[in-house]
Every structure is written in C-alpha cells, then in structure tokens.
Structures
1.
Amino acid sequence: MSPAPNMHSKDGYICLEENHRQSEERNNARDIKEEGQTYVGKVRYFAQLAVEDKQNPSHKHWKGAAVVQLYSPPDPDFLTLSSYMLASCKLLEEEFTHVVNIKQIVGAVAMIPHQPTLASGEEELRYFMVEKPSMDIATFLGNKEDKGQDEDGMNFPAE
C-alpha cells in the first residue's frame, strides 16, 4: 500500500505526505498518548491545519496534526514467552487510521519486521518494537504507574 500524494479533509484542508525515505528494513513509528492510553502508530502524513480561533472567529491559527495508522497491542503470548522482552505487533488495516494532534505524540520507536511461524505452520508478518533506552513505553505494555510518593520520597517502584 502506498499513500496518496495528498489527502483532502472534510473541511477542504490538504494534508501533504511527509517527504522522507524509510528504510525497507524498519518502520518509523510514534508513541501516541490519548486519554491516558498509549498507542503505537505509523505516521503516514504530517499536516498543519488552519483552525478557527474560538475567542475570535474571524481569526485562524495553525494546529499540527498527524495521520497515523495504528499497530495492534503487543501479542500477549509473545510477551509471556519472551519474559516481556518482545513486543510483537501487527500493522492494523487502514480503517484504524486516525488524525491526532502532534502534541499527543510522546516518543518515537522503530518497528522491525519479523515473520514468526505460528502454531498452525503459517508465517505472519509482524513488527517488534525497538525503543531508545530513555523512552518509557511501560504504559503500552500494560504496566500501571503508581502516582503516590513512597516512604523516602524517591518514587522508586516497590520490589
């Protein structure tokens, strides 16, 4: 599937395709946080949209947006078998494409293709996540963060 060179929104704005080359060996993806939930998606386009100012309707301001195709949550069997080291996901169909505010993008990861052989003997195209050591995607893997202070105020997780 190759994205169209541009896309028109309902309001007549044009979203231009991001002009960059991606390695055939990996997909660049972004962590997106929405309503406290973290998702991983492949950015198809970046755009700037003219949005009407609520306080002064005759003025417009620019808002950054991204058209993002989501990846599935990590496969729980791969997570368990790999001691939570292999977050293996599928790139979801085009109907799982969303427009998000670029301020919702909280990080970047690489999604490396791999084709594991399933129990049925079929190979399936999946992607495993590689992140920078400083990135925190624990919320994507389902871990809950304790927001409270611990005894010494250092906020280290309990053992």
Note: Residues 76-81 form the longest helix (6 residues).
2.
Amino acid sequence: MDAGSQIDAAQLPDLMAAWADFVEGLKTILVDVARLYHF
C-alpha cells in the first residue's frame, strides 16, 4: 500500500481549507511588508 492511498477523500476539503488559510496569511504578511517598505 503506497502513501498516496492513506489520504481519505473526506479529508480533502479540510486540507484545501487549511492550505487556503495559509496562502491568505502569507498574502497578508507580504502586503504588510510592502506597506512598511513602500514597494
């Protein structure tokens, strides 16, 4: 059994939501840094 089959289809929405939250947080940080340094 390979590792890929360990991810249950029911977990995918949770994973996608967590990834989306991470990306949004990253964008917020980048915008804050840009404002600080007036890019």
Note: The longest helix spans residues 12-37.
3.
Amino acid sequence: MAGFARWFAQKILRRRDAVATEMNTLKRNEQSSRCLSSTFKEHHMTLDQLVILYPNSRINPSNPKEADGLSAQTAAEYLARDGPNMLKPPKEISNVQLFLRQFLNLFWILLIGAAFLSLVTYILDTTIVINLYCAIVLLLIVLVMCIITFLEEKKVLKVVRGFTNLLPTKCSVIRDGTQVIIDTEKLVVGDIVVIRSGSRVPADVRILHCSGLKLEASSITGEAEPIDFHSEPVADHIDLFDAANVAFNGSFCIDGDGIGVVIRTGEKTILGQIASLTTTQKTKISSLEVEINRFVRFVFISALVMGAVIFLLGCVLTK
C-alpha cells in the first residue's frame, strides 16, 4: 500500500511539473511576440526627434516632402554595413525527402515493426490470414498519417516562401534631393521612401507625411480591412501594431500616398522577424506526443527484453 501511495504521489508531482512547464512555455511565447516590436521606438517620436535620429537623411522638419535623403556615398556605406534588404529564403528540401522524413516518428516505426512481424508470421503460416490483414491495416494507417503530416508541412513551407513574394523588386526613393528608382535589395536604413497607390512598402517605414494613405497589411497584422495611416507620434503606451504611423515591409498601398524614412530592413523588419521565427523555431512537442513517445519506448524496450528472454529460454530448453 505504501508503495502504491508513493507511486501515485510521484505521478501527481510529474503532472504538476508538466503543467508548470506548459505555462512557462505559453509565457515565453507571449513574451517573444511582444519582442517583435520591442526594439522599435520611432512610432513614439516627433518629426524633430526623427530628424536628430536620422541626420544623414536630411529630413526637412517644416516640409518632409522636400527631404533630400541620403547621399549615394552614405547609402553605399550603409549597404556594406547592414547588408542587402532581403529575406533569407527557407532551406530547400525535395518532396521525396520531406515525405520520407515523416516515417521517422517513433510511433510509426513501432507500427511498421508490428506490421513486419505480422507479415513474417503470415509467410511462415499462410493459413492464418488475419496476420496478413493486420499487416496491411497497420501499413495503411502509417501511410495515411504520413501523407497527412507531409501535406501539412508542405503548406507551412509554402507560407514561408510566400513571405518573399510580398517584397517588391523596385522602389522609389529620394537620394541627393532627387527621386530615383532602385532595386529593393539596395534600400538602407535612413532612405527616404515614396509610397504610392498600387505599390508595396519595401521595408519598415516611419511615415513622415501622407495624404489619405491606406495600407493593407493582413499578412502581418491580421487586419482584413485597409488601415488609415498618419504621420503623428503616438503615446508611449500604444503598441507598434496599433500606432498606424509605421508602414510594415510587404504592406500594399490601397489608396493615397506618403513619404517616410526607412527604420528597419531585411531580417530586422517585422516581416523578417516573423519569417525567421517560422523557419528557425523548433516545433513544440505537446504533452500527448510526450506521453505517446514514452509509451512507445516502454513497449519497444519491453518487447526487446521479452524477445531476448524467450530466445534464451528456447535455446536452453532445446538443449
């Protein structure tokens, strides 16, 4: 009885620890989502403060539309320092490799092993047809489940690759007082970007001046409706995603026009951080998967031990 009580107490403690671990994981996820915007402060800044923060952009505080922008030399130096304005593509993997990877699940390996043993048993004695049926059913279950997980992983990879399609190939900037069209990859922090209706925002841009500017950023903010943007600073308690004065990388201009200063490029943009989290973050294992893996290991080890014992007994008895 004392042994049972000790075992039951250990189970309760393990369950409590598991719940605590899950709660900590949820808290970390919430904190990581807030960290996406934690380095941004420009949405709280006034125009005069932005002029001080980006002196080389030569912003005209009285009339931002007359900003001279970066010089060609400064832009080249920033590009060499920060790298190109682009998102790192996900690792390429063939459909065959992706599909075969699904069979590495410990539970599926156990079912395949059981199906193999059933098939061997049927071959040794073809009169017992049930062994053949068991092998076929088990293999079908594994195949169907692997196909489902393969399709799900393929969807995730498609979404990640879709992030790069949100970026325009060209953008309009002001450099040395002249509006020019450049490759988006050559855009740098401090560039003055011109946003027009029908174009995509090439980086994270703090709006300096706008007229009826409406942007669609559903892939980033989740807002289905276009958002009206402005150039005014917001209070300290307002989050970046609610500020409506920072146009995110990949947003589409529905209406109006505006001008702004680039504050983040490439992987440092909100879109880049989301893509990076999607491709690098390890898949969280649920409590159910942990229990299943534990059960599979127990069955596997038990089967090996029992098989070894029966084999040794058979060898002894036959002698």
Note: The two ends are 43 Å apart (CA to CA).
4.
Amino acid sequence: MLATTLTASPAVGQQLQRQQQQQRQLSGGQAAAARRRRPAPVCAAQQGGGFGDGVKRMAKQITGNLPVIGLISRWASTEGGVGNDAQAYPEFCRQVFDAAPEGFQIAVAELQNKYGKAAQRRYVLLALWMARHGAGALPGKTIVDSARRLRISSDLEFEMDRFTEALAEVHSKYTYMERPRGSPQQQADIAVDALARLVLNLKDGQPIPEEDAQVLEDCAVGGFWDVPEFREAAKRSIAERQQRASAYL
C-alpha cells in the first residue's frame, strides 16, 4: 500500500504540474485577448476627442439660448452679456459703481456742479455705455447724435431703447461669431466726443477747454476701468479732437 502511494506520487505531481501549466496558458491567453481588445475603446475615444471639443465650444456659444441654463447663467452673471445678450445699461452702471476708480465719481460731480443737469451721472453713464459697446459695431455718428439729443430731451429711455435696437440688429448677424468691437482708441474718440456734446455742449471738432480736459478724461476712463491703455487713448482723443471735426457728418 505504501509502495503504491509512493509510486503514484510522481504521477500525481506531474499531473498537477500539467494542470498548473494549462491554467497559466489559459490565463495568459485571456490577458492577451484583453490587451488586444483594450485599445479599441481608447482609439474610439481619441477619434471622438475633436468632435467632443467642438461640441463643448458650440455649447458655450449657445448657452445663452437655452431656456433654463441661459436663465441660470444670467442670474449668476452680475455683469450681464451672457450668450447673445449685450450688456444692458443697468448692468453696466452696476459694474461702474463697483469697479470704476474714485476719480470717476469726483469727475462726474465736478461736471454736474459746473454744467448742470446734462452732466447727471445717469446721462454720463449712458454715453459711456454706448461708446463702450457701440464703437466698431455702429457708426460713431449714431452714438454722438444720441448724446446730443439726450442733452436736449433728457429722454434716457428713448435713447437707450434706440441704441439697443440698433446694436441688436448688428449683433444678429454674428450669432456664432465674434462680434465687431472698436479698438480702445476708437472707443476713446467716441466717448470723448459724446461727452463733449452731452455735457460741454461743444460742436464736433471744437477743442476741449483746458480746465475741463482732466475732468473729462477721468470721466471717460470710468467707463473703461478694465482697459489699461484707455487713459492714454483718452488723453490723445482730447488733444486731437479738432482733427475729428468732420468725423460724424
């Protein structure tokens, strides 16, 4: 009995070795098959990456058109201008109050003390809002003439609505493209000229009085607080105003 067990043991051991070898071969084959199959989804993901990026870009562009997401984005964005919406006048005023340098408030107060009703903050802000968002998209004459009418009529809502409609008509042509926007110098020229017509009651091309130059500069800069080069552009615009005598014909 003992001899049988001893003689059988090598056979059993060999059988166990064969079973283990078969298991290793089977496991190796399964792993190789898994490795062969694994690149497929990876390649698919890589091939679809460009498309996904394009979808993301498109989604960002049309966020404002989605009823729910667009509404939430508008609530969360205090500065406005979400999706296809241009920044509204009240939103612009709120940003100026929060971000404009202290010199802006002082400049507006000085202009109002000297020139009266036409230099009220709400009128000044309307002129700056139109210059900021309309330059490059609308003719400068549209904005400067609006400032001139505002001095006479004091009808802020009429001028605001008229400008908004004109700007919306232009923007409707650029639904998924970058909208036209003026350079800082173009914006400065229109801002200075609009304020000159509104507050100082100067005709096109008339020079800014020396005593008002710094105050008008501070006032214009307040509407472009986030444009570092705007102050220099405003200085240049004030100094060269006579050269724009025929700019708004």
Note: Residues 92-244 form one domain.
